[in-house]
Amino acid sequence: MKNLERKERITMQKGGSFLTEPITIDAIFTPEDFTEEHQMIAEMTSEFVQKKVLPHLAEMENHQFTITKQLMEEAGELGLLSSDIPEAYGGLGLDKISTAVISEMMSVAGGFSVTHGAHIGIGSLPIVLFGNKAQKEKYLPALASGKKIASYALTEPTAGSDALSVKTKAVLNEAGTHYRLTGEKQWITNSGIADIFIVYAKVDQEYFTAFIVEKEFSGVSVGKEEKKLGIKSSSTCAVRFDQVEIPIENVLGEVGKGHLIALNILNIGRYKLGLGAIGASKEALKKTIAYTKQRIQFSTPIAHFPLTLEKYATMASYIYAAESTVYRTAGMLSEAMDELSDDVEMKVMAKIINEYVIECSLNKIFASEVLDMVVDECVQLHGGNGFMEDYDIVRMYRDSRINRIFEGTNEINRLMIPPTLAKKCLKGELPILSLAAMTEKEMLSYLPDEPDGKPLSQEKMLLSNARKITYLLFGMMLRQYKQQLEEQQEIMVNLTNLINAVFAMDSCIIRTEKAMIKGKNDEMQKLLYTEIYCQEAFQQVILEATDTLAYMLSGDELRLSLSVLKKYTRFTPKPIIRSKREAAKCILKAGGYQV
């Protein structure tokens, strides 16, 4: 019966369906659904980071990577490298929520968390998800234990966001036994300590293909460590391949199908990056509250100044929103993937992961930008000390910046979402165009409902209207630009921002409503966060929608559309200053992010 229910729920939760379908609260995973096992994994990971990693972080920042390798083996002994690896291949085979918890808890470890994340994610997952039995048996046990470190080699000097344009080439020898690999990869995480590289090249300069390459293969060479702005405690080098002989057994997946691996592994990487950004945001806030409590100015700890409290509440509200979306995605991936067998066909696995490409990209965009906002405000609250290397917040500020570039820049991720939605509409997977047509019919006669005063009633109204605005603009954009969509980058970005606001508002509301129904006495703080985030996000919706209409229309048509927009954006604002003051009390008392 459980398996049947699981299949039904997977069918219901289509990727992108948060835009079009109401969903019951029990179908959404939230952090409040953690089991005792999840809590134990979180505590174990946190203890490892605090006791083992952080005492050596300064040494790793100075590129003493022998310590990194030792710590990775210790992590392997604890099972912190093998949650995604099946038991048959030396792993623990845990559910995707457990892996999510590990990723979030590990994120406070600075650049070491990047080493760990690259190893368990984009480094090992290609073999876990797309390798054949022999490849899994050969490589996964050593990756699970940390005796070997994995790396993902895709980016090249001329192929960054345009990942499929790689110049690295592979040519089959006359005997048909090996491919000769030639090319160069740059900015490769873990490259200085890696034993195994997942390398992408074009066979016969045409067929994009993934290979498993061992560092010991003749012709593999690693360049010097890059001088980076941040994440200095992770290894980043160029990797060169000079006529490297790769056994045909080391082709990962199929020749010419490397894009299925590369793009879907990046999808998982984006979602996991979101998890890491959540953990880092919470840690930055925690450290900053501790600092502001002991920093006295005008005979008062600056933690008690109203503007400081306002910053606490804003940061925590946005963390709550990002956390809600990321763990919602974790739940969808867990339901879709946890009970799959180890020998799932490549196309089937790719299809399952690709189903949630929109959610994974939104996780990456939103959580990385929340982190940047948080660390920036935390530096500000440290005052002059926030500019001094003696304080951890300085390293966190530097480390955070890469997240908007990693795994496809935020700009590339934003530009990808509207065309992906358009394809889903054309395939009949999402009814956005029919919803847009319905909204157009009602818009002139539409009279907005007034909230009934119950908790979340206004937030639900804002969410409903944000959806309608998104439908209208999406339909208008497709009609007006059709085949020229790629030339309209600005409005595609605006539309993605609307879509992100809908996803985050919806996730906050469902999570808070779930807490209210369960009645665990923590719903008031969640309600405050939801009120704060939804009202501020809706103000952004108004700006993005107005900007988009002003670009696409003019004259009377524009004036009519703006008058319709006013109907959908009319609301009586809540006193958010008061809400933030109230929320900040609990945050200050707890000494950190509090739900």
UniProtKB/TrEMBL annotation:
Residues 256-417 form the Acyl-CoA dehydrogenase/oxidase C-terminal domain. Its cofactor is FAD. Transmembrane segments: none annotated. Keywords: FAD, Flavoprotein, Oxidoreductase. InterPro entries: Acyl-CoA-dh-like_C (IPR049426), Acyl-CoA_DH_CS (IPR006089), Acyl-CoA_Oxase/DH_mid-dom (IPR006091), Acyl-CoA_Oxase/DH_mid-dom_sf (IPR046373), AcylCo_DH-like_C (IPR036250), AcylCo_DH/oxidase_C (IPR009075), AcylCoA_DH/ox_N (IPR013786), AcylCoA_DH/ox_N_sf (IPR037069). Residues 152-244 form the Acyl-CoA oxidase/dehydrogenase middle domain. Residues 465-567 form the Acyl-CoA dehydrogenase-like C-terminal domain. Gene3D superfamilies: Acyl-CoA dehydrogenase/oxidase, N-terminal domain (1.10.540.10), Butyryl-CoA Dehydrogenase, subunit A, domain 2 (2.40.110.10), Butyryl-CoA Dehydrogenase, subunit A, domain 3 (1.20.140.10). It holds the Pfam family Acyl-CoA_dh_1. Signal peptide: none annotated. Residues 35-147 form the Acyl-CoA dehydrogenase/oxidase N-terminal domain. Belongs to the acyl-CoA dehydrogenase family. This is Acyl-CoA dehydrogenase family protein.
